[in-house]
UniProtKB/TrEMBL annotation:
MF annotations from Gene Ontology: methyltransferase activity
SUPFAM superfamilies in the record: S-adenosyl-L-methionine-dependent methyltransferases
Coiled-coil features, chain-numbered ranges: none
Designated name of the protein: S-adenosyl-L-methionine-dependent methyltransferase
Domain of life, source organism: Eukaryota
Originating organism: Patellaria atrata CBS 101060
Taxonomy of the source species: Eukaryota, Fungi, Dikarya, Ascomycota, Pezizomycotina
């Protein structure tokens, strides 16, 4: 069922249009944003959750906003309070935040870099203000950044998503829809966007074009494939069903968007990945680890329904009740200690667009990397850091 968003939701979610906004937005975004003023935006309500559109699988409602806020805390704790592993300079001019969500990262970054212009783009409207003041160096935009090769004769289906019921159709690479930002960025940040894009190579091509020479991209996600101890468990069954459902939806939840080859194919160099393992448990950890372990557990439990509900009901033939019962069983497994040894690998991938002044020398990135503040003590398992310089 389509639902009109409340007017307060819209006014909270959309910043006023002013001259700096016009200067910085893509033409597409201006159009999208104006469509909100004309009440064109619709949300989709299904099984008691609210979604931004008929495509993206995660909800954009108040419980999800709370969960994303907690998740932001885990991410920044995993870096000892830092917001990025990219070696960006203090006076970085322009940053693009792709899929900004309720804006926790964009706001924290804007506060730390008050002279930096941050363009925060999301396809959903979130309650941005809540009880906080928004920094005025963020430009909020509503836009769909999902780009992929499309057949000219297939324009009707180009934005087709899960609710269309269509499986991933291989599309011939005749034309590609594009990002249309009018000014380049020094840094592009993409976090927690697994499953949001149909063609990551195409997204990276657009990011490459949108960056200045020498600019950095950072992609952050957690890795479901590192979850162990799953045989004969409800968690294992749900993860298998989830993977199959996302493959059918055309937006597979894989880790290929974190692989070097995917960045290479778009022209990026100096691929580097930092992995931080976050525990799921609360026993046998020191105080700081216990805090993160507890928080991560709460986020995971809350995320079970948010992650599975739409995909399993639309693609795997589960009813909403079956999904909720499945989530309850997984919670019981955690309480019973089945998954006590589980860690999640948070991965931070950074790569650079060639060019720029003087940063072409080998070793530059690793030297900067050494200066990064990463408190390995806050995380129970090992911190590993690997880098490959082209
Ligand atoms: C899991 S949330 C992560 C939010 C934020 N990056 C963070 O780390 O807190 C994914 C976000 O991506 C947005 N999103 C999904 N598909 C998108 C698209 N095609 N274009 C822009 N944003 C999108 C969703 O609305 C949601 O806010």
């Amino acid at each position: 069922m389509d639902m009109e968003p409340s007017s307060s939701h819209i006014s909270q979610g959309v910043a006023d249009t002013d001259s700096s906004r016009q200067r910085s937005t893509s033409p597409q975004s201006v159009i999208s944003t104006r469509s909100l003023d004309s009440q064109d935006l619709t949300f989709v309500e299904a099984h008691g959750r609210t979604y931004a559109n008929d495509k993206y699988y995660m909800p954009c409602d108040s419980p999800e906003q709370t969960r994303l806020g907690l998740l932001h805390h885990v991410y920044s704790s995993s870096l000892g309070g830092s917001l990025t592993t990219a070696p960006i300079s203090e006076d970085v001019q322009r940053i693009l935040e792709v899929g900004a969500g309720p804006g926790d990262w964009a706001i924290a970054m804007a506060e730390r870099h008050p002279d930096t212009e941050i363009v925060a783009v999301d396809v959903a409207v979130w309650d941005l203000e809540g009880d906080r003041d928004l920094p005025n160096n963020i430009i909020w935009e509503i836009d769909d950044l999902d780009v992929f090769p499309v057949d000219d004769e297939d324009t009707e289906t180009e934005k087709k998503g899960p609710s269309s019921g269509s499986a991933a159709t291989p599309l011939t690479s005749i034309r590609t829809n594009e990002w249309t930002f009018t000014e380049p960025f020094d840094f592009i940040h993409i976090r927690g966007m697994k499953g949001a894009f149909r063609s990551w190579p195409t997204v990276y091509q657009e990011a490459f074009k949108a960056l200045l020479p020498g600019g950095y991209i950072e992609v952050v996600d957690f890795d479901l494939t590192t979850i162990h101890t799953l045989h004969n468990t409800q968690l294992g069954r749900m993860l298998v069903a989830l993977r199959q459902a996302t493959e059918q939806s055309g937006y597979p939840l894989t880790g290929t968007h974190m692989e070097k080859a995917t960045f290479d194919s778009a022209g990026f160099i100096e691929y580097r990945v930092r992995t931080v393992n976050v525990p799921f448990r609360i026993a046998q950890l020191n105080d700081a680890e216990t805090t993160i372990g507890k928080l991560w557990l709460v986020i995971f439990m809350e995320g079970l329904e948010a992650t599975n509900l739409r995909l399993l009901t639309e693609y795997a033939g589960w009813t909403a009740e079956q999904v909720r019962e499945g989530c309850d069983k997984v919670r019981e497994e955690f309480k019973a200690g089945y998954h006590d040894e589980m860690n999640t690998a948070l991965r931070y991938v950074v790569a650079r667009k060639p060019g720029g002044d003087g940063s072409e020398q080998e070793g530059t990135l690793s030297e900067v990397g050494l200066e990064m503040e990463v408190d390995t003590h806050i995380i129970a398992a090992s911190d590993t850091d690997t880098m490959q310089v082209d």
